[in-house]
Amino acid sequence: MQATVNGQQKEIDSGTNVTALLGLYELEPIRVAVEINEDLVARSSFSTTTIFEGDRIEIVTFVGGG
Hints:
The protein is mainly beta. It has one helix spanning 18-24; strands at residues 2-5, 8-11, 32-36, 39-41, 56-61. The termini are far apart.
């Protein structure tokens, strides 16, 4: 199925959840914020939040520095 991830069309498997999507990008859940269709997804819900055809997903990574 098709979803938009950070502005780019991405083919992902049906039934993919946020945790699995982050794994495709090799991102650790503790270091990101995720929005689906402009709604912030709670980190505690990543494994139970399923992505559907046509969803618009934004993944923002946290970068530390000093």
